[in-house]
Backbone:
């Protein structure tokens, strides 16, 4: 009897042992991943369906497109307000999907940076750190374009919540555009040192992509020489090449293919009701600027009655490509050169691109009588139509006083002008402000 | 950890004391029906030798040799005195008779760890005996608890999705809401559908801390303990057979009012004239448009004449797809049930075996399902009762198949043409497009629903298996040690084969079909069937060593100690997979390219890859628990109970010191009627009870670490080969278990002869450390955060009473259940938004507001319709206003109108049972009081975007003066989402939910061999049962049932026969 009793007690004691040896350490769900390793961070930074998905507001605000009353009616209220360039666009209890999306990218970057801290300084750790910094910088840069005024117009009383660590419970710091952009530049400069010079997949940044965003930032800050240098870095590498539009098939429903040779960094803007709608027409004024011999006209657009719809997405379908592509570098470089009074250098650079875009150089040469700056800006608008950069350009030009014709939109026989909001930024969703203050 | 082991060791060491000098007396106490009386008190007169019967009614007692008077007593029974001489070889069999011949049978409640006579319990138990369990008819055992269990309610409506059953309200916000279910002493891991209700002998519902805290961290929502039949000792073979057929009405498609079809066609015409459909018409994805719109397009484009168009529109105005569905698809559903059971036993061995078969044919044609259950068990008593052993086996097989799905079409589409032949309806694409691709060599792209009846091959099959052996060693008469073990496993497999007879299959192949320049077609999704399979396998091991010690000291002190440990490991894995180009006759499939993106046939601009539909899942649930329960009884009058449990589990990432939580309870009872001073009173039984303690709850989906999850590949991904992860949980190092503190005060009584009996309980539940989710600024990276910060409180009263009016040849008794509760959120760090509250009436997730119940009805205050325009109006600064943007801007939680709880605050049932000779009639009427609900109404926003609307449309405001008799706004000129959302969130749609319902009626006739000796069986019962019989009274004049706003509660009738041999 005693023996059995002892055995029984042994059994109970063994329960304790099991628990000590990790019985309770098993994770409750197989799918749970606690990011700890380089591979885990790699996967976090490859979540391209969020990280390479860009804000819809950038597209709605751009004057590249117009729509008709019936379609406008069908948009959600914030889309309607944004279309009319109102400043307070969100409903009182509404979150902004764009705003949320961009901060989610920042959170992913901050978590990745924290995990990487403890993983040494190997080559892969360094390049992942660079990628995370890049993602954070790009997101803050995009936030500042939507929710802060141009850095050239002052307005430091307008601020944005900024977080540089993943602690959910810590409240944000409030920074004005000047401070935000310093952080953006710092992160990008560091990222440039860290990331590789090429990337296996185009959802990941590399040195050229980082430089391309720096070029955008410098243009935004009117730092022409820096912008030129950044653009030149990419052009000098020569690893991406221009598509020759002579060889493209303009009868195809979508002439361009995904990840074509001009694509440097994948980006997408997609919304069934806005970007993919069959009532999202090209602004007729812009349409008028495509002259005879411009190969882009049949490749980018399709006629719908008297109006034009866009089919030139580098995603090869109805989703808009809003990543980074090579022609932007020619245009940025040329603009910087012209603004630095190196007009001929600028036009030479433009000619390289024009060769691939015009039926023959005769058509291009006919343009040269125009004011060089106007020419470069007009080419920029025509080349980068529906690529997600127009809103940034509108803000730049507005700050420079070069936005000659005030953009106007008409809904229900009423005109709405961009000047309605002098500093060209959206007021943060009031719901978010309420939560921030809690 | 170590401390607990030592603690357990100490407990076991109590058994060291010896009893060598004495002789042993063994016996068994039962009532006059032979049912054992656990807890009966046995004492040798003028001595301190005494014992208490165990759960089988057995006792054993050590005393020196000699002659004694043995006193046997039990509450509610006549005491007996028996002369005995020790030593005594054979076992004493003692039968006690009831004090009043009609006293309710002895209720022995089960906590899953031990059986306690209800009279000795301190905690709150609701007990359903076999008769009550078997009163209802149906395949699901839990449904049998409805409206016969005090304090338990089946929640209804959209908010019930996550918590179908509430016991004494809800004590959690976001964690598990359901009671723990124990079947035969072990927490049940399988689906409840696998329990055959015919096997159930009794159900005990544990409601307070003293009852439930022995189940610790999983008991916060109450515990339901199901005990199945066992073979009784020395019981001759009993064979029973039960069979019944239940017929239920088919679903009622016309239950939700719908606007008239001619009106809807009118709206479509209007929208067409306003070019509303233009962008859809030109959309590159060729989306479908309704037949009316297509007719109007054809007319506009000159494809048909005005006369043809008019004729078509007249046709549509007279069609109704619901009529077609009713006549081709629906029929009454039929459920059949057969159950056979055998049980019996001798002195050493007892056994039971039961077999059940259930079959049901759903109200949609050819959708059958069936269930087989088989359970059997053996118990042995060896070595003169020193060693008990048992082995139970349970097996269930469940199969359900869906061969037909209801079609989804426009309101006025027909499923047949004029000649009555099956015809196509519009699906996915517009008819113009489908016409235009005819002759291109594609598979038939038309959807003809009637041709698909019975053509689905979609089935699931699940096997459930449990084996539970135990060994109990009665070391001394007072002390035993037991080891209990259960192995459970469940295999579920699903298979869904979509053959080419189905539109789904042909559409999938057509979409991906590629055409080259010569017009040759190729098929990335190969021609053949599409087969989806899934499999889930889970198992658990539960091991429980336990000791019990029961001893009487000095004749009047009875101590009962139970202590043990439990270790549990439950794991599961699952996967799903899909095969293309499958041929069922050959069992072969064709590999496909999952990586490339293919332009869609209908829109080359849309490129997607082929869905792989592969997924994997797995979980591990582990618990280590230690528990102890001490019961002390002094002189049958005073009771004290103490229980404690500590649970540890593998909650992810929580530091081990936070993993475990000690939960305990203490309770006391006093049978006043046993006191000498009460002996003269006309109340044979009166008892007070009070308990206090804690139980817990947990949400295992959270983690103290930041967690991520790999993202499943989607067919529209541009980089399908990418291994990507998304962050799921922000870190929360402070995560801990939820705690529910419960206090219970009760009074039980029974008058002379059991005429009036009942119990009244007051309770208070205070739940703290509740997990709550609150909104955080997006700048944090997340939009919400979950942590232990909420607190709720529920106070309530449960009353259950029974009156036996007549007890002659005609029996009439009435059972009354009444529960009242007040739920309140005490603390919730972040308030929900106004929109959260407005929308919450139709959502399952609660939005807690401090000071209010978890589920409330909130609206904009209603200022009536504008007399000029019929626009809905609200109040802005006390003035009626139509400025919906401002109304929504100005709304705050404080100025929203709060109507009241969305869940009944009072509920219960009144059951009358009559019997005369062999006839019995039982009628149960239930009631729900003190709550509100939100009615559905016309949604002009979606109507003006082309979707048919609610029947309220017919009664809308149409001209000035209409506001006198209608609250339904006028049709606006254009889709105005703010106006619509104001109306749908306004007080105009709130109704009082109070109602009384005739729940069910059971009528039966019993034959008995006693009266009819020629019968080939002992007893037989022929019974009928009607369920969901209708509402007797309701407070609102809404045409729909307050608890069933979306679909009619289906009436059913059953006919059955039960035979006992």
Residues:
């Amino acid at each position: 009897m005693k023996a059995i009793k002892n055995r029984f007690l042994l059994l109970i004691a063994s329960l304790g042992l099991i628990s000590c040896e990790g019985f309770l350490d098993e994770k409750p769900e197989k799918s749970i991943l606690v990011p700890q390793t380089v591979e885990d961070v790699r996967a976090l930074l490859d979540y391209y369906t969020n990280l390479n998905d860009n804000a819809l507001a950038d597209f709605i605000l751009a004057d590249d497109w117009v729509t008709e009353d019936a379609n406008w009616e069908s948009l959600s209220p914030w889309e309607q307000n944004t279309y009319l360039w109102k400043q307070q666009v969100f409903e009182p209890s509404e979150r902004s999907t764009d705003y949320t999306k961009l901060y989610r990218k920042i959170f992913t970057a901050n978590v990745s940076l924290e995990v990487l801290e403890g993983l040494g300084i190997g080559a892969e750790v360094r390049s992942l750190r660079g990628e995370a910094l890049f993602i954070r910088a790009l997101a803050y840069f995009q936030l500042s374009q939507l929710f802060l005024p141009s850095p050239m117009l002052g307005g430091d009383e307008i601020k944005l919540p900024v977080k540089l660590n993943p602690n959910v419970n810590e409240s944000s710091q409030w920074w004005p555009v000047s401070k935000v952009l310093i952080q953006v530049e710092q992160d990008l400069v560091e990222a440039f040192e860290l990331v590789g010079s090429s990337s296996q997949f185009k959802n990941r940044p590399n040195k050229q992509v980082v430089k391309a965003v720096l070029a955008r930032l410098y243009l935004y800050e009117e730092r022409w020489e820096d912008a030129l240098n950044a653009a030149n870095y990419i052009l000098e590498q020569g690893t991406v090449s221009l598509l020759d539009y002579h060889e493209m098939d303009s009868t195809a429903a979508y002439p361009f293919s995904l990840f074509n040779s001009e694509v440097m960094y994948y980006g997408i803007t997609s919304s069934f009701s806005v970007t993919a709608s069959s009532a999202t027409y090209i602004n007729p004024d812009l349409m008028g600027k495509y002259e005879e011999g411009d190969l882009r006209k049949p490749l980018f657009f399709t006629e719908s009655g008297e109006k034009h719809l866009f089919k030139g997405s580098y995603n090869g379908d109805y989703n808009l490509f809003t990543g980074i592509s090579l022609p932007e570098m020619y245009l940025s470089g040329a603009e910087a050169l012209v603004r630095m009074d190196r007009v001929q250098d600028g036009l030479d650079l433009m000619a390289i691109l024009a060769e691939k875009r015009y039926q023959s150089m005769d058509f291009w040469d006919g343009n040269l009588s125009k004011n060089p700056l106007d020419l470069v800006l007009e080419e920029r608008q025509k080349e980068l139509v529906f690529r997600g950069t127009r809103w940034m350009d509108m803000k730049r030009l507005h700050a420079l006083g070069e936005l000659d014709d005030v953009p106007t939109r008409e809904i229900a026989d009423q005109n709405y002008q961009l000047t309605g909001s002098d500093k060209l930024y959206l007021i943060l969703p009031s719901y978010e402000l309420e939560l921030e203050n809690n | 950890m170590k401390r607990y082991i030592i603690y357990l060791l100490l407990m076991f060491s109590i058994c060291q004391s010896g009893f060598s000098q004495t002789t042993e007396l063994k016996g068994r106490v039962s009532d006059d029906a032979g049912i054992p009386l656990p807890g009966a008190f046995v004492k040798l007169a003028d001595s301190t030798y005494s014992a208490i019967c165990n759960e089988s009614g057995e006792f054993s007692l050590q005393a020196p040799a000699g002659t004694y008077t043995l006193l046997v007593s039990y509450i509610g029974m006549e005491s007996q005195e028996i002369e005995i001489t020790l030593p005594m070889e054979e076992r004493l069999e003692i039968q006690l008779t009831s004090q009043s011949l009609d006293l309710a049978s002895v209720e022995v409640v089960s906590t899953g760890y031990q059986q306690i006579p209800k009279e000795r319990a301190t905690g709150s138990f609701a007990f359903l005996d076999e008769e009550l369990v078997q009163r209802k008819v149906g395949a699901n055992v839990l449904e049998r608890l409805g409206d016969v269990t005090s304090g338990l309610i089946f929640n209804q409506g959209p908010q019930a999705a996550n918590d179908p059953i509430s016991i004494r309200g809800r004590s959690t916000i976001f964690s598990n809401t359901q009671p723990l279910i124990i079947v035969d002493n072990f927490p049940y891991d399988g689906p409840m559908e696998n329990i055959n209700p015919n096997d159930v002998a009794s159900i005990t519902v544990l409601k307070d801390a003293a009852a439930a805290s022995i189940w610790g961290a999983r008991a916060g929502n109450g515990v339901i303990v199901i005990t199945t039949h066992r073979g009784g000792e020395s019981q001759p073979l009993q064979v029973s057979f039960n069979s019944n057929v239940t017929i239920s009405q088919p679903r009622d498609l016309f239950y939700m009012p719908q606007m008239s079809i001619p009106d809807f066609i009118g709206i479509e015409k209007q929208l067409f004239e306003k070019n509303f459909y233009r962008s859809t018409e030109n959309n590159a994805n060729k989306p479908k448009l309704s037949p009316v719109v297509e007719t109007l397009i054809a007319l506009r484009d000159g494809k048909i004449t005005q006369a043809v168009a008019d004729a078509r529109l007249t046709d549509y105005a007279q069609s109704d797809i619901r009529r077609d569905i009713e006549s081709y698809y629906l029929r009454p559903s039929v459920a059949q049930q057969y159950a056979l059971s055998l049980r019996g036993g001798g002195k050493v061995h007892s056994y039971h075996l039961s077999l059940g078969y259930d079959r049901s044919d759903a109200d949609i044609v050819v959708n059958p399902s069936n269930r087989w259950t088989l359970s059997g068990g053996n118990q042995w008593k060896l070595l003169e009762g020193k060693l008990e052993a048992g082995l139970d086996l349970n097996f269930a097989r469940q199969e359900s198949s869906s061969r037909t799905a209801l079609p989804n079409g426009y309101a006025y589409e027909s499923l047949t043409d004029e000649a009555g032949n099956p015809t196509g309806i519009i699906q996915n694409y517009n008819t113009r497009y489908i016409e235009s691709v005819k002759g291109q060599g594609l598979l038939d792209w038309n959807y003809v629903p009637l041709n698909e009846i019975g053509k689905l091959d979609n089935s699931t099959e699940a096997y459930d298996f449990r084996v539970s052996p135990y060994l109990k060693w009665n070391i001394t008469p007072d002390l035993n040690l037991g080891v209990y073990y259960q192995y459970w496993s469940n295999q579920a497999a699903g298979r869904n084969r979509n053959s080419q007879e189905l539109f789904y299959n042909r559409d999938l192949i057509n979409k991906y079909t590629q055409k080259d320049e010569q017009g040759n077609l190729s098929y990335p999704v190969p021609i053949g069937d599409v087969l989806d399979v899934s499999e889930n396998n889970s198992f658990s091991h539960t091991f429980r060593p336990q000791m019990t010690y029961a001893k009487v000291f000095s004749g009047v002190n009875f101590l009962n100690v139970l202590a043990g440990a439990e270790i549990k490991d439950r794991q599961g894995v699952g996967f799903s997979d899909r095969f293309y180009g499958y041929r069922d006759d050959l069992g072969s499939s064709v590999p496909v390219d999952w990586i490339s993106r293919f332009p869609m046939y209908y829109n080359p601009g849309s490129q997607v890859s082929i869905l792989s539909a592969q997924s994997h899942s797995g979980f591990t649930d582990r618990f280590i628990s230690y528990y102890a329960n001490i019961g002390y009884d002094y002189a049958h009058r005073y009771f004290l109970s103490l229980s404690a449990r500590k649970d540890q589990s593998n909650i992810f990432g929580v530091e081990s010191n936070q993993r475990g939580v000690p939960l305990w309870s203490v309770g006391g009872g006093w049978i006043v009627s046993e006191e000498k001073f009460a002996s003269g009173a006309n109340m044979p039984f009166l008892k007070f009870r009070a308990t206090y303690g804690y139980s817990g709850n947990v949400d295992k989906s959270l983690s103290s670490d930041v967690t991520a999850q790999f993202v499943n590949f989607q067919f529209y991904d541009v980089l399908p080969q990418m291994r990507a992860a998304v962050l799921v949980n922000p870190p929360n190092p402070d995560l801990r278990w939820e705690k529910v503190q419960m206090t219970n005060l009760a009074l039980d009584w029974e008058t002379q002869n059991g005429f009036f009996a009942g119990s009244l309980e007051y309770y208070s539940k205070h739940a703290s450390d509740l997990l709550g989710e609150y909104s955080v600024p997006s700048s944090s990276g997340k939009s919400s955060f979950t942590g232990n910060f909420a607190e709720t409180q529920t106070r309530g009263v449960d009353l259950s009473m029974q009156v036996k009016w007549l007890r002659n040849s005609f029996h009439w008794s009435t059972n009354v259940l009444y529960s009242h509760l007040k739920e309140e959120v005490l603390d919730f760090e972040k308030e929900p938004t106004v929109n959260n509250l407005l929308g919450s009436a139709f959502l399952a997730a609660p939005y807690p507001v401090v000071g209010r119940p978890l589920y409330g009805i909130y609206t904009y205050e209603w200022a009536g319709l504008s007399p000029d325009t019929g626009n809905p109006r609200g109040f802005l600064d006390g003035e009626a206003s139509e400025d919906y943007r401002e109304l929504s801007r100005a709304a705050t939680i404080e100025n929203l109108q709060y109507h009241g709880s969305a869940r009944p605050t009072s509920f219960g049932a009144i059951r009358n049972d009559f019997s005369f000779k062999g006839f019995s009639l039982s009628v149960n009427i239930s009631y729900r009081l003190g709550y509100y609900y939100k009615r559905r109404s016309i949604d002009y926003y979606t109507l003006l975007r082309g979707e048919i609307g609610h029947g309220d449309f017919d009664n809308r405001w149409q001209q000035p003066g209409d506001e006198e008799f209608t609250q339904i706004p006028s049709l606006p000129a254009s889709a105005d989402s703010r106006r619509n959302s104001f109306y749908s969130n306004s007080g105009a749609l709130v109704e009082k939910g109070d109602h009384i319902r005739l729940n069910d009626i059971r009528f039966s006739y019993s034959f008995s061999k006693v009266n009819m000796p020629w019968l080939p069986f002992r007893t037989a019962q022929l019974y009928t049962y009607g369920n969901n019989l209708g509402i007797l009274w309701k407070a609102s004049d809404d045409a729909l049932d307050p608890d069933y706003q979306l679909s009619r509660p289906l009436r059913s009738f059953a006919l059955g026969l039960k035979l006992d041999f």
